[in-house]
Amino acid sequence: MSLRRALLWLPVVLYMALIFHFSSESDPFPTLTTHVWDKLLHLTEYAGLAFLVCRAFAGEGLSWPAAIALAVVVTSVYGMTDEWHQAFVPSRTSDIHDWLADSLGATAGALLCRAARRRQ
Q1: 23-81 pLDDT per residue, tens
Q2: Using CA atoms, how far apart are residues 32 and 58, in angstroms rounded to an integer?
Q3: 3-state helix vs strand vs coil in the chain, percent to 5
Q4: Deepest of 17, 39, 73, 106, by most Cβ within 10 A of its Cβ?
Q5: Are 54 and 7 in contact (CB under 8 A)?
Q6: What is the widest separation between alpha-carbon atoms in the chain?
Q7: CA distance 70 to 67
Q8: % of the chain beyond a pLDDT of 90
Q9: What are the b/e assignments for 66-93, b being 16+ CB within 10 Å?
Q10: Are 83 and 97 within 8 A, CB to CB?
């Protein structure tokens, strides 16, 4: 793997690993989750992931429409697997509404990536 590809995909893998790590904990941020609506947290978390995934796909040479679409799909599927994973974690539940917030965040993050690249 080239250094360029590693710089594109390593942030994606690390971000996914962080999501998995915190999803493995029963209550990773109790103070935050008592003050912020959990759907907003899901939306923000997955917007960040989609931004990185979209950046990587665009860096691989995909067209912007393809990079955005694939970023949304990949991020949404990862959100689905994360919800399934949480079904096995004590004090956590699997919730379709969380997945919908993940998917909405994925769409926002991919579009934000495109908007950020236009400004450059």
Answers
A1: 998 777 777 667 677 899 999 999 999 999 999 999 999 999 999 999 999 999 999 99
A2: 33
A3: 80, 0, 20
A4: 106
A5: no
A6: 45
A7: 5
A8: 78
A9: ebbbbbbebbbebbbebbeebeeeeebe
A10: no
- Give a yes or no: residue 25 inside a domain: no
Six-digit token string for 120: 């450059």
Answer positive or negative: Cα dihedral of 44, 96, 23, 57: negative
What per-residue confidence (pLDDT) applies to 29? Answer: 73
Q: What is the identity of the amino acid at 49?
A: L
Residue 42, domain member (yes or no)? yes
Q: Which domain holds residue 82?
A: 37-119
Q: What type of residue is 97?
A: H
How many domains in the chain? 1
Mean pLDDT of the chain: 92
Separation CA 97–CA 120 (nearest Å):
35
The pair of three-digit structure tokens given for residue 75, joined into one six-digit string? 């991020």
Is the separation of the CB atoms in 36 and 30 below 8 Å? no
Amino acid letter, residue 15: Y
What global pTM score does this model have?
Answer: 0.91
Residue 17 forms part of a structural domain: no
